[in-house]
Design brief:
By secondary structure, the protein is an all-alpha fold. Helices cover 75% and strands 2% of the residues. The protein has eleven helices and two strands. Strands 1-2 form a two-stranded antiparallel ribbon.
């Protein structure tokens, strides 16, 4: 028999995990929405952030410093993808895949040639842990708010505007004298840096880093972005403040993990979780398209 109280007890954990993955979606938002670049590096850079954070904490590095170094490591991963695409002229998707594959081996080396490494909150001072979900939500909220504020400021600068122009129309941006290759590299580095930072937070929350923890991250990130877009861009995108569009990715991550929590609460087969995820994303993807089609149909009927 289903217990509603059990669902409520699990809700804080779902929110905390959703916020952490929402931060990852915030990084993915830069490439997917702003730069219009299909970057698959994130599956690898997420694991890189987790591995770097855990190994540095084990070595005695403060958790906050470890997360910031993980951010730098993620930026380097994005830099490699940018180099493959802009210098070697490899297609965006292939550039990300190549970096992702290379990062698997690199992440193994970072973890000391082990598939995973654990950190216990009893032995190390961590920023957040699943043992205290309320504090985890607060810490994730602070990170998300700070990142949204920084990105809102950054994309209002001349450099940030150049990146947005590159994503909107690269040919026009190039004609205006913008170095579009440079803009792509900067955006990819920033995006993967935020993704790696999120990986570092998740590793602390879960208490371990795994070489495969980032597998499927691109799907979760896109799901969060799509869910947030459907909710906040349902009216007129031009009327929505850019900071809200950034925040929608984080909120989308929360909604996504609450949905996953409901699936688990309904005691549906966990082996079918990927199937449920695909269905969930397909539903949110179809909503704006169906709504647009209905509006056109109603407009055509009104004209007749």
């Amino acid at each position: 028999m289903l217990s509603f109280s059990a669902l409520l007890r699990a809700l804080p954990g779902n929110i905390a995990q959703g916020m952490i993955w929402g931060i990852m979606a915030l990084g993915l938002y830069i490439t997917y929405k702003i730069l219009n670049f299909s970057d698959l590096t994130v599956d690898g850079s997420f694991s890189t952030g987790a591995a770097v954070t855990v190994m540095l904490i084990i070595a005695g590095c403060p958790a906050i410093v470890a997360v910031l170094i993980a951010f730098v490591a993620g930026c380097l991963a994005g830099l490699v993808t940018g180099f493959l695409h802009t210098v070697l002229k490899i297609a965006p998707i292939l550039s990300g895949i190549l970096t992702q594959i290379a990062l698997y081996s690199i992440n193994l080396h970072i973890l000391g040639n082990k598939a995973n490494q654990a950190i216990n909150v009893n032995d190390y001072s961590l920023l957040l842990t699943l043992r205290n979900t309320k504090m985890a939500i607060l810490v994730a909220l602070i990170f998300a708010a700070v990142l949204i504020a920084i990105l809102y400021w950054f994309f209002g600068t001349e450099l940030g505007s150049a990146i947005r122009a590159t994503g909107n129309n690269s040919q026009m941006a190039k004609a205006q004298g913008i170095n579009i290759d440079k803009m792509k590299v900067i955006a990819l580095s920033l995006s993967n840096g935020i993704v790696a930072l999120s990986g570092g937070l998740l590793a602390q929350y879960q208490g371990f880093a795994d070489v495969s923890v980032g597998r499927g991250a691109i799907v979760i990130g896109l799901a969060a972005i799509i869910i947030g877009s459907v909710i906040f861009e349902g009216k007129n995108k031009k009327e929505i403040n850019f900071s809200i569009l950034l925040g929608s990715a984080v909120i989308g991550g929360i909604i996504y993990y609450i949905s996953i929590g409901i699936v688990l609460w309904l005691k549906l087969p966990t082996n079918d979780m990927k199937l449920f995820t695909a269905i969930l994303v397909a539903v949110f993807l179809s909503v704006p398209n169906l709504s647009l089609g209905k509006k056109k149909e109603d407009k055509a009927n009104a004209g007749n």
